[in-house]
What does this fold into?
Amino acid sequence: MSNPQQLRYSKEHEWLSAVEDGVATIGITEYAANALGDVVYAQLPEVGDTVTAGATCGELESTKSVSDLYSPVTGEVTAANQDVVDDPSLVNSAPFEGGWLFKVRIAEEPADLLSADEYTAFTGN
Amino acid sequence: MSTAPRLTALDALHRSLGATMTDFAGWDMPLRYASERDEHNAVRTRAGLFDLSHMGEITVTGPEAAAFLSYALVGNIATVGNGRARYTMIVQEDGGIVDDLIVYRLGETEYMVVANAGNAQIVLDALTGRVGGFDAEVRDDRDAYALLAVQGPESPAIMKAVTDADLDGLKYYAGLPGTVAGVPALIARTGYTGEDGFELFVAPEHAEQLWRALTEAGAPHGLIPCGLSCRDTLRLEAGMPLYGHELTTALTPFDAGLGRVVKFEKEGDFVGREALTAAAERAETAPPRKLVGLIAEGRRVPRAGFPVVADGKVIGEVTSGAPSPTLGKPIAMAYVDAAFAAPGTEGVGVDIRGTHEPYEVVALPFYKRQK
It folds into this structure.
């Protein structure tokens, strides 16, 4: 698998898009999606919610387990992907594209987000 | 345990297929190859190929093999015909379930007991400890076999392409020796998926040849390799118990709703008879908890150990839960107080991380194949 170069990554396996007008798109990586297996239920933060970097803001449930969803940045949620709520398998089939999870107007971002190469090394691939 | 996981004869093949592996009862086993939902659906509608080499085979031979097994197990093994198989259990003196088993009668005085991987050593030790006084021998054959399973409605057609054995004459819960894809095999019509299917016991050195032949013969029928993840959702939909979940040493077969496997009418004593006689009576007069099915109204998935609740009180516990690919909803098996066990009982829910999600109580199984 390859992690897109234009994204940044957290050690909790979220990705963060380039920031546009202060807003970034967030999802989970292909590595994380593969580890989860088929995602069957996604509970996402709601528009207007405040999310905090490194804190849980939802959950992703797969056949075998449930995983907390973390936000890689602090800010206000401006969108949640209703397509994923309706069809959680998008997280598996297109984790970096149609399977995005939510968008955040960034108030603060941690200094330790990883580049694609760093994240690839972090996951040992 | 700190020991390295055991590898099946097909380990390299699984890795070449890109399998996600998992530790299961000390074995490194395929969890899934790609999507576990696709694997599940393949078995329900077409066919799937499994490596089940972690299962524990124990051979019992000798003039008194049948009498011994009828003493050591709860079933009446003396009535198992040559070439037939029986689902049964081994219990402690106090009636607690040690394991559920399939016993295959391979010959006049030869039986193969197949135990769950996690219990194989315990079952072997128990059988060895109980054989004294019988003219019978217990042999550890765990390393003598690899076990492959072809499961699903297309499995007879696939098998016919690789064997001349009389499959039409091979009924459910029967087994016969034969040649499959050029290798000697014990062909059994058994499984753990709720579908028609075959389990093939072969020498480990023949496992890869057999796997490849079945993959090739199965391709036109839609057969795909399947991992343990879908095996779990398949057996759950079919209402089949899993040791460590629905079955434990704290439960008797009667507590688990499987009292039918206990044959009091058989000749002679058997381990657990006294305790099970009392357990059977208890189940009749004052059943403590009953095993039921639960179907979610929402989408959050119940997991083993989650409390089952009603009127704000805990009335049971989930033993297995998963999103059901066939039903399209989360399902669970759970032990609940008898007062809440009737299908359709109102007001039952599962406590999913603090939230009480509504669930419908149903009779098991969730899924039954059309014959």
Remarks:
- The domain at 6-53+145-237 of chain B is CATH 3.30.1360.120 (Gyrase A; domain 2).
